[in-house]
């Protein structure tokens, strides 16, 4: 069996291959160049933004899922199931409707970050007395339902039906039709969020050994929780504000990679970052290859992939009880 460093190198190679394939692959699975585009123009203006946004979204969701599962000791914890994605989408929709048009490019990602932070804070408040699997998941489901209801209300009150329809398509999740300036805008926030989450690795390992052991190691639960909230808010909020709601990446990736690191929560973080980026790049590549008239939305594909995994985890948890 490969060591942890060798596994990371392999994941990095897989990401690089999928990244390059995404840059050269056109919709429909062809490698043709449309009329009126030269190669450099096509790559820089069309394919690079989509590929880059797909990777950083998958990496952010995979990493945040691993951190949330490690902190809660819950294999079902994931930003989508816990309502963080829904609150990020709600914040982005509110910013889209009520933010200043002149600053829309950075206002919408900021709204997503604030929405994700609000969702995380509410989740921590609801689950502060009960960190059991049932209490934690139910709190997330309740928050997700509330955010979805408020998003629907915002769409219902939209003065322009065409704008509401555009937001509905955006909520399905997609990395297409984004320019490079838009993608570069969120990279600092995503990089800071990933840095904060990756630094939680040693604390998550101590936390996995129990509160008493964590206390002897000088681990502060409040400081760890704050770092996770900030990191997930920056990562998930920024990316979801750009792509719309993309769920289950943070559930599937840690679940698949955890056995490789012998269930060490600290070793899982970088694996999940690379694995999440690879999974979403693969899903976006499959979208382009499928011979369909209308291109599937990325959020639809991840939901189709993640739902069976969720049922498997629920079945396995029931067998263990």
TrEMBL record:
Keywords, ordered alphabetically: Cell membrane, Membrane, Transmembrane, Transmembrane helix, Transport
Membrane topology: Multi-pass membrane protein
Places the protein is found: Cell membrane
Chief localisation class: membrane
InterPro entries associated with the record: ABC_BtuC-like, ABC_transptr_permease_BtuC
Transmembrane domains' residue ranges: 48-68, 80-98, 104-127, 136-159, 179-198, 228-256, 268-286, 298-315
Pfam family for this entry, one: FecCD
Acyltransferase in keyword set: no
Family, similarity comment: Belongs to the binding-protein-dependent transport system permease family. FecCD subfamily.
Name of the protein in its database record: ABC transporter permease
Species of the source: Pokkaliibacter plantistimulans
């Amino acid at each position: 069996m490969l060591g942890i460093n060798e596994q990371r190198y392999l994941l990095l190679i897989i990401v690089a291959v999928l990244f390059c394939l995404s840059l050269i692959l056109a919709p429909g699975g062809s490698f043709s160049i449309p009329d009126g585009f030269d190669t450099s123009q096509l790559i820089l203006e069309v394919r690079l933004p989509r590929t880059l946004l797909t990777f950083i979204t998958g990496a952010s969701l995979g990493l945040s899922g691993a951190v949330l599962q490690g902190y809660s000791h819950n294999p079902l914890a994931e930003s989508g199931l816990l309502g963080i994605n829904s609150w990020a989408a709600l914040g982005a929709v509110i910013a889209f409707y009520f933010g200043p048009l002149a600053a829309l490019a950075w206002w919408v990602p900021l709204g997503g970050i604030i929405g994700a932070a609000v969702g995380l804070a509410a989740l921590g408040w609801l689950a502060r007395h009960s960190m059991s699997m049932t209490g934690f998941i139910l709190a997330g489901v309740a928050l997700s339902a509330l955010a979805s209801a408020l998003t629907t209300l915002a769409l219902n009150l939209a003065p322009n039906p065409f704008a509401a329809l555009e937001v509905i398509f955006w909520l399905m999740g997609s990395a297409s039709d984004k320019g490079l300036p838009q993608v570069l805008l969120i990279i600092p926030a995503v990089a800071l969020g990933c840095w904060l989450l990756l630094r939680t690795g040693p604390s998550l390992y101590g936390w996995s050994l129990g509160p008493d052991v964590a206390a002897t190691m000088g681990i502060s639960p409040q400081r760890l929780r704050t770092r996770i909230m900030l990191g997930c808010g920056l990562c998930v909020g920024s990316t979801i504000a750009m792509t719309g709601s993309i769920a289950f990446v943070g559930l599937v990736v840690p679940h698949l990679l955890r056995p490789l690191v012998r269930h060490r929560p600290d070793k899982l973080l970088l694996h999940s970052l690379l694995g999440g980026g690879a999974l979403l790049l693969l899903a976006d590549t499959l979208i382009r290859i499928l011979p369909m008239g209308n291109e599937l939305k990325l959020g639809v594909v991840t939901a189709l992939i993640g739902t069976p995994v969720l049922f498997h985890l629920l079945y396995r948890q029931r067998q263990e009880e």
